[in-house]
Design a protein that fits this description.
Layout lengths: L2 H4 L16 E6 L5 H17 L5 E5 L2 H9 L7 H10 L4 E6 L6 H6 L8 E4 L7 H14 L6 E5 L10 H11 L5 E5 L12 H4 L5 E6 L6 H7 L7 H5 L3 E4 L7 H19 L11 E5 L10 H9 L2 E7 L6 H5 L9 E7 L5 H20 L4 E5 L9 H11 L5 E4 L4 H6 L13 E5 L3 H8 L4 E5 L5 H10 L6 E5 L7 E3 L14 E6 L8
Parallel strand pairs: 1-2, 1-3, 3-4, 5-6, 5-7, 7-8, 9-12, 9-13, 10-11, 10-12, 14-15
Antiparallel strand pairs: 15-18, 16-17, 16-18
Length: about 525
């Protein structure tokens, strides 16, 4: 019995019946052709070999295919029905693997599906990011002949051109090594415009290869490429012999991409990839704006596991705010180093100061210890981590260096108000407020401007904003999410008020709507 005729019937779910193991739901568009059924069989076999301990079930998104199969008295399930079948079997979790080329409309329809009592995670489609595109381009190049004219036949999307971006990117990567390959799509950009290129490429050779960038060579290849209708690619090209290469779904390398995406989804469901700090590694950990309950779970995990914790402390304070923030995570046997850093603008002196800590970090890591530097906010934004990390990159293998992001002051400050920082096509700039000319220029180039280090220049900032008619669109928060937090809806009210070093201004300059 063919896969489409057996896989979805409730008493033909394949795999062990341990409901504690996540099931795998292979979600495909569906096909009525023999080529489609053969492709799905090969994919199913590949998943069976890779995940022998997990039950597999298929679900299809095409209503037309589902209807035709029902008319043949061989009913198949759609994705929602397949999930309900698994729930009835007592399955507690399921990885949904979308066998789609791009993250388009079919993919969007199955993401976010929910079934009571079941944990569901949807894996990525084939071309989900830059690494996938490069990987698939390499596989496509292995399928085509470098000097042979080749049509890369993609489905495309006519209603949302942005969804075609992965296909266009794939074409660019392929053409770097095969300049005779061009993308054409059945729907949306670039359409069939590229077919005109082949009249000048083929010369005396009247043969063109067609590589279907499709999981299944179904109706599109049969009708739109090889069909007799005037708009078929065969008729558009005229006196050329078209050779159809196997579809993507038939290639073991493409199948492996989906298998890898499925593995990642299963890891998420089973938490096998919970972050685990390693001996001999250094971690720069952002602890947020200073509120203990805004510490991320990963930051807490790393801090609790640390052998050595470096806590930067300003020369003008008696205690480390970062250390106070993580106090509940500390163990009595951890070594705590409170490092006093200078507020001087002397770069040489600053780097000499941090070079001492870098040497200690390297020594501790060489001893196999887990070393953590905690820093307020996020390590990437105006943080002392920048100095330490630049030193460590010169002295240690970068695979031993890690950054754990934290909630930044600008995010905490924005949470004090109801206005969103950005929407639609808005641009946001985050910068220091120390140079008013630079601030004035930035106001012309963004919709939202966020300023750090603005306490000492508030009077100048208020004057500038009044001149530009933006004073009523500016907000200020000092010591965001700390006990002494101050919130100002009008910056002018803060000019003569004690503000402290941690002051963040947000100016809503304008809004930029979606392009029409």
């Amino acid at each position: 019995m063919k896969l489409l005729e057996r896989k979805i019937i409730t008493d033909h779910i394949k795999g062990p019946m341990d409901p504690s193991l996540p099931a795998i739901l292979l979600a495909a568009f569906g096909s009525n052709s023999e080529a489609g059924r053969s492709t799905y069989e090969k994919i199913d076999k590949a998943f069976e070999q890779s995940f022998p301990d997990h039950r597999r079930i298929w679900g299809f998104t095409s209503k037309t295919v589902k209807k035709r199969m029902s008319e043949r008295n061989t009913p198949i399930a759609d994705v929602s029905e397949a999930l309900e079948i698994l729930r009835a079997e007592g399955v507690e979790s399921c990885a949904v693997v979308p066998l789609f080329v791009i993250p388009g409309e079919e993919y969007e329809r199955i993401t976010g599906l929910k079934v009571s009592g079941m944990k569901i995670h949807t894996a990525l489609p084939l071309l989900a990011g830059a690494q996938d595109i490069e990987r698939v381009a390499s596989l496509c190049l292995s399928m085509i002949q470098k000097d042979t004219a080749t049509i890369l036949a993609g489905h495309g999307n006519g209603s949302d051109s942005s969804l075609n971006a992965p296909l266009l990117s794939l074409e660019r990567h392929i053409r770097k090594q095969s300049e005779h390959a061009f993308l054409a799509t059945f729907d949306g950009e670039p359409g069939v415009a590229s077919l005109e290129q082949f009249s000048s490429l083929s010369g005396q050779n009247r043969s063109i290869d067609v590589l279907p960038l499709l999981m299944v060579s179904g109706v599109h290849v049969e009708d739109d490429v090889l069909g007799e209708k005037p708009s078929s690619w065969k008729n558009i090209l005229g006196d050329y012999e078209l050779s159809i290469l196997p579809s993507l779904g038939m290639h073991p390398g493409i199948q492996q991409v989906f298998i890898d995406h499925c593995s990642a989804a299963l890891d998420t469901l089973t938490s096998r990839k919970a972050f685990k700090p390693q001996n001999g590694h250094f971690y720069a950990v952002g602890v947020g704006p200073g509120a203990p309950d805004l510490l991320t779970r990963r930051a807490e995990t790393v801090i609790r596991a640390a052998d050595v914790i470096i806590a930067p402390k300003s020369a003008v304070t008696t205690e480390s705010l970062a250390l106070e923030t993580v106090a509940d995570c500390l163990r009595p046997d951890q070594q705590i180093l409170e490092h006093v850093y200078s507020m001087s603008r002397d770069l040489t002196r600053t780097m000499e100061n941090w070079s001492q800590i870098a040497r200690k970090v390297k020594e501790y890591c060489n001893e196999g210890k887990k070393v953590v530097q905690i820093t307020l906010g996020d390590p990437h934004l105006y943080s002392t981590t920048a100095y330490l990390m630049s030193m460590l990159r010169e002295q240690m293998d970068e695979t031993l260096l890690h950054i754990i992001p934290g909630i930044s002051a600008f995010q905490a400050a924005a949470a004090s108000f109801t206005e969103p920082l950005t929407s639609q096509e808005d641009r946001m700039i985050l910068m220091s407020a120390q140079d008013m000319d630079a601030v004035s220029d930035a106001l012309e180039r963004c919709e939202t401007l966020v300023l750090y280090k603005c306490a000492s220049v508030l009077d100048q900032l208020a004057t500038l904003l009044e001149q530009k008619g933006l004073i009523d669109q500016a907000r200020l928060v000092c010591y965001a999410e700390q006990e002494q937090q101050l919130v100002f809806n009008d910056i002018r009210d803060a000019v003569h008020t004690a503000k402290g070093y941690m002051a963040t201004a947000t100016i809503h300059v304008r809004r930029k709507s979606w392009a029409v």
